[in-house]
Design brief:
Strand content: under 5%
Helix content: 55-70%
Radius of gyration: 22 Å
Shape: globular
Number of strands: 0
Order of helices and strands: HHHHHHHHHHHHHHHHHHHHHHH
Number of domains: 1
Largest sheet: none
Number of helices: 23
């Protein structure tokens, strides 16, 4: 059976990738997605990416996605780090819109395949090696990522590198290689989508990751400051004085810098490069109740028919933050690092649980977690007996949503919307809960309050100890 699986997996992966590419052109997968059946959204997240660099060449804001000559038939708002526009988007800006789109699809597909390769390299088990490619490439969120052309694949790579870095520290691989992976993962996320900011408290507490994390933060801060302060890179900047007065006025940011509340009209504050960071605040309490939004807040409030406090949904983040300190108290190195890796996986899922506006393609960032689970089972981790269950549940991320069951009926009803979102939200919540319970159990069993003394408040001990 093992030999059959090792033969069938590469064949199934190739067939599905070919089907995906064909479906992008001929629409074979359209019945699985509301956006493909009822809206013209192919490439909608992509065209603003090369347009951002073309804007910069014309001395226009990188974020003025709809200013000047149009690039492509439609677009959403560009929101990545301004450095991404210069260092990545520029490569694709010299082609016609649809040629550029297809090139970016191949670029994203290669990144996803590379993620599979990196995870496969962590095991000698041939089935697990080939399974890693299958999970990363043969998933409906991966297809939707390619369809809308979002630049989310670099974040998937960043999370893959970070997971493998902690894996390397845990199982005695070359520490320098692990540090290099961690550095690359942090920087790739920082300069595309900074979701790994949630991991920083944990990484600053762990002695294996602390120095690398501090170096990455310093590089990030220096480059980011250049893109804020240099008029050539921030041609429609509001100026440091005005930015300084604005940056802590959260109420103003939420009221005047939310793209949805502004009905997609950009004001001067939203054309400053700082919007890359401030948008996280602007949308922090806003819920977009749309069929294509797959977040726990929207899932629950659709069922209840009423809005709850946004603070409730931040509980997973707060819990992860508290457990970061708890994990640091575990004296047994192997258990501490295994707990660190488990907590990293759990924290990567909090985006789906705590952030309000989550699109289906963003579930590709959960695929490296799923692909790594069988490999971890072979390492006899302390939560080994739960891995098979987590893996089976995690495979639901790869499956299509249940939209195809209701797309010919009333797909906007509460029942239909709940069904459509079920196998995205429920697996994410289930995996998070199981992982967090296991981390809590490890902290309770192995935590040692004497370790507090080793997390010294002296700067030289904390940063270099």
């Amino acid at each position: 059976m093992k030999e059959n699986r090792s033969i069938l997996l590469p064949f199934a992966t190739i067939v599905f990738v070919v089907l995906m590419l064909g479906a992008l052109h001929w629409g074979w997968f359209n019945p699985f997605f509301f956006g493909a059946e009822h809206a013209q959204v192919q490439g909608i997240d992509y065209f603003a990416v090369p347009k951002s660099y073309l804007n910069l060449q014309e001395r226009r804001s990188i974020y003025d996605s709809w200013g000047g000559a149009a690039y492509g038939p439609h677009s959403t708002w560009y929101l990545a780090h301004p450095a991404f526009s210069v260092f990545v988007a520029s490569w694709f800006s010299f082609f016609s819109p649809w040629t550029s789109y297809w090139l970016f699809i191949l670029f994203s597909l290669l990144i996803m395949a590379y993620c599979g390769y990196l995870i496969a390299a962590a095991t000698s088990n041939i089935v697990h090696k080939r399974l890693s490619y299958f999970i990363l490439l043969c998933a409906f969120p991966t297809f939707w990522l390619l369809y809308v052309g979002n630049m989310h694949a670099p974040l998937v790579l960043a999370l893959t590198l970070i997971l493998l870095a902690i894996y390397g520290f845990t199982y005695g691989q070359n520490d320098q290689q692990a540090r290099n992976k961690l550095m690359a993962g942090l920087l790739i996320s920082f300069f595309s989508k900074p979701i790994v900011l949630l991991l920083l408290p944990l990484f600053l507490l762990m002695k294996e990751t602390r120095r690398t994390t501090i170096k990455a933060i310093l590089i990030y801060a220096a480059v980011s400051f250049i893109f804020i302060a240099d008029p050539l890179l921030n041609p429609q900047g509001m100026g440091l004085t005005k930015l300084g007065n604005l940056v802590l006025d959260f109420d103003f940011i939420k009221e005047h810098m939310n793209i949805y509340k502004n009905q997609f009209v950009l004001n001067e504050y939203m054309k400053d490069n700082s919007i890359h960071w401030l948008n996280l605040i602007a949308q922090s309490d806003y819920k977009l109740m749309h069929i294509d939004v797959f977040s726990l807040p929207v899932f629950i409030e659709t069922i209840l028919g009423k809005e709850l406090s946004s603070a409730i949904y931040k509980i997973p983040i707060y819990l992860g933050f508290v457990l970061s300190f708890g994990v640091a108290l575990i004296s047994d190195k192997k258990i501490r690092l295994e707990s660190t890796l488990l907590l990293v996986m759990a924290l990567s899922l909090t985006f789906f649980l705590s952030y309000n506006t989550v699109w289906e393609y963003q579930f590709t960032s959960a695929l490296p977690v799923v692909a790594l689970l069988p490999i971890l089972k072979g390492k006899d981790v302390f939560y080994k007996k739960y891995i098979s269950m987590m893996f089976i549940v995690g495979l639901l991320f790869c499956m299509p949503t249940f939209y195809f069951l209701v797309h010919n009926g009333n797909f906007q009803s509460t029942t239909a919307l709940t069904l459509i979102r079920f196998n995205r939200i429920v697996p994410a919540l289930f995996l998070f809960v199981v992982m967090i319970i296991q981390v809590i159990a490890a902290v309770k069993k192995y935590g040692d309050l004497r370790e507090v003394k080793k997390i010294s408040l002296r700067p030289e001990k904390f940063f270099f100890g």
